[in-house]
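hiii so um. not sure if this is the right channel but i have a protein structure encoded as tokens and i wanna go backwards to a sequence. like what aa goes where. can anyone help
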């Protein structure tokens, strides 16, 4: 297999100035609370997106993708603003826009983060480009600033109303650790996540059910949390307790109450999970994963039949815990399982999917991996 430098040379006839990489992620726990100033506990997966970039002397931007047979998108950097039509390359162009790039570039993208599986292939793409550009032009943005700029690209340029979790972990993760992120101030803490030495593994189940944050369900959940905050006179769900929510319930619609109950209870589960990990209590971690899934399914209603089937089948096959991850409405679930039960869990999930006539799921596993980095520079 040729290197990304060779692929760049093939596409553009010259060598790149810089090569960067950024990973996808799974979120162990803390779902749909990044936009409510909550805590989350994701880790970077081993699959990542690579980008090779070269400066040009004019204002042309050319972007090729190995996965799309080197189809090259060509635009003038002066035209790169929200509203410009395009396809996948908008994720890269949005980052150039949010970082204020004004000169021409050639870029080639190559990656193996599964697309549409809820494993943040878009954040991996954005963060690889942001990392390369930051170093190529010596812009000196901190990781926190890069997280905000890549989120801005996705919100304002691509038009997806995502929070900032995926970009943050793709940029800031450290190998061997899950990343506790506090969205009040974007502060972080590395939490050792060593499943292997407990003979456990985290199975990632891509349900292959459609997942798109642009479909409206995601924005609707965000809006519910915002309206609860306004009605109860707080800045975000972070300031609420379950007691307070119960005592002020009559001010909220039933749906708002349930959405807020998920957000408030999920924040507690994240902190409980950090505590359980510190004690090496994976049985407790499993219980918290199960509770998180039930809350996302019943209170936040962002699950779907395929995700529920994957979770139920994992638990029936002996998983310590299982839950949907990411935005929901499709995408992936995770199951915390004993390594010796991997084959039987996979078999049980496949069987349940066949019985329900669902598309066959795909399985992955990953240890916590390294966040974005520069791989080469000339
Ligand atoms: C998606 C979003 F992009 C994240 O910001 C986060 O809200 C997640 O859904 C749900 O936890 O991945």
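sure thing!! here u go:
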């Amino acid at each position: 297999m040729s290197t990304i430098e060779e692929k760049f040379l093939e596409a553009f006839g010259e060598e790149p100035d810089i090569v960067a990489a950024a990973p996808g992620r799974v979120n162990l726990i803390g779902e749909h609370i990044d936009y409510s100033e909550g805590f989350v506990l994701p880790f970077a997966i081993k699959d990542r997106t690579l980008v090779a970039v070269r400066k040009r002397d004019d204002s042309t931007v050319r972007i090729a993708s190995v996965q799309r047979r080197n189809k090259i998108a060509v635009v003038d950097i002066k035209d790169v603003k929200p509203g410009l039509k395009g396809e996948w390359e908008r994720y890269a162009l949005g980052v150039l826009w949010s970082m204020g790039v004004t000169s021409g570039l050639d870029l080639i993208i190559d990656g193996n983060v599964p697309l549409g599986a809820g494993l943040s292939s878009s954040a991996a793409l954005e963060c690889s480009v942001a990392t390369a550009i930051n170093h190529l032009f010596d812009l000196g943005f901190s990781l926190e600033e890069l997280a905000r700029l890549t989120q801005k690209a996705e919100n304002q340029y691509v038009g997806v109303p995502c929070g900032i979790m995926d970009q943050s972990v793709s940029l800031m993760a450290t190998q061997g650790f899950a990343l506790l992120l506090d969205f009040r101030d974007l502060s972080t803490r590395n939490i050792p996540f060593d499943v292997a030495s407990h003979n456990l593994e985290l199975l990632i189940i891509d349900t292959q059910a459609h997942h798109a944050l642009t479909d409206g369900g995601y924005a609707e959940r965000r809006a519910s949390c915002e309206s609860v905050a306004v009605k109860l006179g707080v800045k975000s769900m972070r300031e609420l307790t379950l007691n307070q929510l119960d005592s002020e319930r009559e001010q909220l619609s039933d749906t708002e109450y349930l959405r807020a109950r998920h957000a408030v209870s999920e924040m507690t589960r994240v902190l409980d999970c950090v505590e359980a990990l510190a004690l090496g209590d994976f049985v407790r971690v499993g219980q918290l994963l199960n509770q998180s899934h039930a809350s996302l399914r019943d209170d936040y209603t962002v699950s779907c039949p395929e995700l529920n089937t994957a979770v139920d089948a994992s638990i029936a096959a002996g998983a310590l815990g299982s839950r949907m991850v990411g935005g929901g409405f499709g995408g992936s679930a995770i199951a915390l399982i004993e390594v010796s039960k991997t084959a039987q869990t996979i078999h049980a999930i496949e069987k349940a999917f066949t019985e329900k006539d669902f598309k066959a799921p795909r399985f992955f596993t990953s240890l916590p991996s390294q966040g974005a980095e520069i791989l080469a520079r000339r």
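oh and Residues 5 and 15 are 6 Å apart (CA to CA).
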